[in-house]
Design goal:
Helix content: 25-40%
Largest sheet: 7 strands, parallel
Oligomer: single chain
Number of helices: 9
Radius of gyration: 19 Å
Order of helices and strands: HHHEHEHEHEEHEHHE
Distance between the termini: 41 Å
């Protein structure tokens, strides 16, 4: 049973127990989870008998190969300006951009594609399974420079050469920060994780820092990046 915490977050408890009811009585059960909240512990007690716990590292530990950076950015348009500034750098050669919503993912994708920052694809819950699989395979094969995604792909992506992860939005579930940035710095490769946070999102940063037990360095936005006034609607 892999990604146990995520399956519970998405409400698949009943489905899991139904599948378990069809399994042979004589079997070995293994359960994998990057985080172990109380509900996962409860599931393990129901699903496993006399389990042995193996911890690779304390939960919510970020890899030492990941350099984390944080920018405070006032609004959506300013985030776009900072994003395009960063993507002018050739070292951003295989980039995962995470957004909180499907709408923002689509908007970021359309803007970057129109400006010629690709090859680029977008994946989220409204995309068909085949479309998501094809996009992921292209990303793994090095055919895409940028993949824009909601948290649908924060788990289970095993691409060893992701140069940068960019959190365009701060995740609502703090554990998702660990999963998102863990898509870079894999297989002993070094990677960079960059987070954009508006003033409201900055309130969540101390909670994330408490979870990962370290401070995320706050950098100054480069002078070349235009910070525009926040629109009334936003």
């Amino acid at each position: 049973l892999d990604e146990a915490d995520r399956m519970l977050d998405m409400g698949f408890y009943d489905d899991i127990m139904k599948i378990v009811s069809y399994l042979p009585e004589k079997r070995q059960n293994l359960m994998f989870s990057a985080t172990m909240p109380d509900k996962v512990v409860t599931l393990s007690e129901e699903f496993l008998e006399f389990p042995v716990t193996v911890e690779v590292s304390p939960q919510a530990t970020t890899a030492e190969t990941i350099e984390q950076r944080l920018y405070e950015v006032p609004n959506l348009k300013s985030k776009i300006n900072l994003l395009t500034y960063l993507l002018e750098n050739d070292t951003f050669n295989r980039v995962l951009i995470f957004t909180r919503t499907k709408k923002v993912a689509d908007n970021v994708f359309k803007y970057l594609e129109r400006k010629g920052y690709g090859p680029i694809r977008v994946i989220h819950g409204n995309k068909g399974q085949n479309s998501r699989i094809n996009a992921m395979n292209q990303f793994k094969a090095g055919e895409l420079r940028i993949l824009v995604s909601t948290d649908v792909s924060a788990r289970g992506i095993d691409v060893t050469d992701v140069s940068h992860v960019i959190n365009f939005d701060v995740p609502i579930l703090y554990e998702d920060y660990v999963h998102r940035i863990g898509r870079t710095g894999r297989a002993r490769k070094e990677g960079i994780a960059i987070t954009f946070a508006n003033p409201a999102e900055m309130l969540h940063i101390p909670e994330i820092e408490t979870l990962i037990r370290e401070k995320i360095p706050l950098l100054n936005v480069p002078d070349q990046v235009e910070m525009v006034p926040t629109e009334k609607e936003e």
